[in-house]
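Collaborator request log, item 7. Partner lab (contact: R.S.) asked for a structural prediction of DUF4367 domain-containing protein to inform their binding assays.
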Amino acid sequence: MAKDAFDKLIEDTLHSKTEDMDVYKSITFDKISEEIQRREHEMKRPSKRPRMKIAAALAVSFIATAALLLTTSPGQAALGRFIDLFAPEKTVDQDIEGQKEPTDVTLREDKMGYLIYIDESTYKVEEIDGQDFILPLNPGDSSVYPEVYMKITQEESKSPTELYAEHEAALKTQYETVIAYGDVEYPLEGKMLYANQGDEWNSEVVKYYFTDNTQGGAFIIEQKLFLEASEGHGARFDNMLKDFTIIPAED
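Returned to partner:
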């Protein structure tokens, strides 16, 4: 069922991008024309017959390529960029504390209905009471370092706006500083709250993102950090969320 939903995501996106195929056709036919002219120029005595043969051969090549794009499975048919987006594994460049860091990540398809890439060399995923926790593999001494995690949950009956207001009110009773960012587009489209308990290296920091689950509810993403970890773990968590993708529900 999960694979079917994933294939449907790719298939729906492909159908919505028919203009891209028209562009692809245009580019390909332009290349056919260029190739015909190039080969004719190389011939000493060009004639209509060679021209027709060249055109026919190149047209067959185009048709075969187009057929391959349109008849393979949805995951293979998405003109390359979707294969890159949802590849089982890929390498991404992360900007960590001002440095570019190439990182191998692995696609995780969750039963809550979302996709996310995880750096499995640094993090693990644990499901606890229906909530997904992304945890550091090496959290350090718990008597010294505060807790760090990213938690993903789903609220099926409340909108991002409702949850945002509720959490903002709660944070103001618990934290020294609360910043209500409202609507954001980075690292994902939704609403964002930030709060901290001070300016010491180990002061607790929390970030919330609320994003529409497309079914009348919302995903709640909580990042628990401390001030010194904000540029490390915080940046890595946000990089994961850049590829956070909701799988459309099956009809």
